[in-house]
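Hey,
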Amino acid sequence: MQAMATEAFIGNMRGPVIRRTDADYDTVRSLYNGMIDKSPVMIARCTDVADVVTAVNFARQSDLQVAIRGGGHNGPGLGSVDEGLMIDLSMMKGVRVNPTAHTVRVGPGCTQGDVDHATHIYGLAVPAGIVSTTGIAGLTLGGGTGYLTREHGLTSDNLLEADVVLADGRIVTANKSENADLYWGLRGGGGNFGIVTSFLFQAHPVNMVYAGPVFWDLENARTVMQKYRDFLPGAPEELGAFVGLKTVPPVDPFPAEHQGKRACAIIACYNGPMEDGQAVMAKLLGELPPPLFNWMGEMPYPALQSMFDPFFPKGLQWYWRGDFVKELTDAAIDAHIAQAQKLPSTLSLMHLYPIDGAVRRVGKNDTAWNTRDATWSMVIAGIDPNPQKAGEITRWTKGYWEAVHPYSADGGYVNFMMDDGDDSRLKATYGDNYDRLVALKGKYDPTNFFRLNQNIRPLHS
């Protein structure tokens, strides 16, 4: 009977269903994070909402655990599952821009690069992350921070509406007036409540930007991080800028004399005229030592968004940890620099992304994303192409996190969580909103069907 049900399921799908015996199985199942290897029984490559409903119903009736893959960028590999069904949305890529309303309808398989490509010709952009290969679905449902966050808020703050397939196979729309409780939960609550098959975003005027990286030798990191910390809160919100500890990539076109040096970098984006951006950055740079190089210049916004793509292709080894940071003290800066001196590979890094400006103009209980009083979202990422270095980069990341965590808030950004332990970490992240999320889970997914995520369990699961 199960074989008959499987054949019926495959016959009812418009998109292909990949099984272990198929020649392209290994290619399709491969994950962005090469450290993680999972083997689903089948991969349902959905082409439309009907396919998603068909896959959900089959998995529920067959008692198969499901993993949902959108853009496929998830760090801990939650887009796949051993011995279950991967519901793969990566073929659902449509983007439709309404230039009059400044809204964008986006399919769940889109990357932020897909969205940028479609919106840029209208002089618009949706606030997103900093790497164009990032999947828009997971980014949005977890929050979403990037260059436009200070001016226009989180990606999830710009979500106007979502179409959602629930665990029982129903299709609902969530917005301010329809299923408003679900709409609240989708903005930061992750993939806990259903499969979003369509996102409607508010877009904003963004065209040419003054942007790029500025690198200093690590010996200047303390001064750079102090000045950045003190400067940014008073800077215009048109300036999005994060600070990082990393290595000058040992490849062209980086200056040969600096390649491989440990460094502190500020990567900035001013959304406005170049001369205004230069004037703003001059106030910061004027208080800092001369950099190794300053590559800020005028460029199309999608060029900035894709600038780092070549360094982070699919298949690298990744291990990351995150925290929210309310205050970057001198002692914390010293702890960061001590860990950065032990960087285990040229790709490993720490970034501090600002959380202020427009993010704080949304009430902490207005969406599921709760940490509106943070100042930065920190990520520490051990990254290397060599699988034999997986253990080393994991140990470095954990050690770094343990060294700086005493200076951090209790919770962390869910999109930067990996194996962060029990529910206490999520409870700290969602704070006052956690109990409401549990109740919402009980309403929309009482059996915890969607549990391969940063999971919020219903009370009686």
